[in-house]
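Lab notebook, bench 4. The sequencing result for the construct came back, and we need a structural model before the next group meeting so we can plan mutations. Quick request posted to the team channel:

Model the 3D structure of this chain.
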Amino acid sequence: MAKIDTKKEEKEILNKYRNLLRACSDKTDKEDKKIIRKAFNLAVDAHKEMRRKSGEPYIYHPLAVSHIAAKEIGLGATSIICALLHDVVEDTDYEIEDIQRMFGFKVSKIIEGLTKISEVFDQDISLQAENFRKMLLTLSDD
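Done. Here's the predicted structure in token form:
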């Protein structure tokens, strides 16, 4: 198995984060960016040991979803935060109460809805379809 270049991955994660901030710069202010950074830091920490089937760091996925929310759909800070955190409760030791304490009721309610909807649908459904469903739920709540 090839050795993982963690420095290169950390640099790539930061580049993806900077791209996200550029994608939402017209819809966010300084305070929004602080909270987005807080969500990014939590997501990075929560998923730090996780890898995708491809071997990539798992954090690439929430970063990609948040970039889609910001750039392609044009959503604001709340949706970007939820996109960054959408798998934290489902896949880590964090609980919805942690999210509420750190990010408030609205974000925790959206994350809770995203977590519940993934439990409703068949686990064999395609990942893209599941992500699309999650995005629609986020849109409706935001």
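The mean pLDDT is 86.
Will bring this to the meeting.
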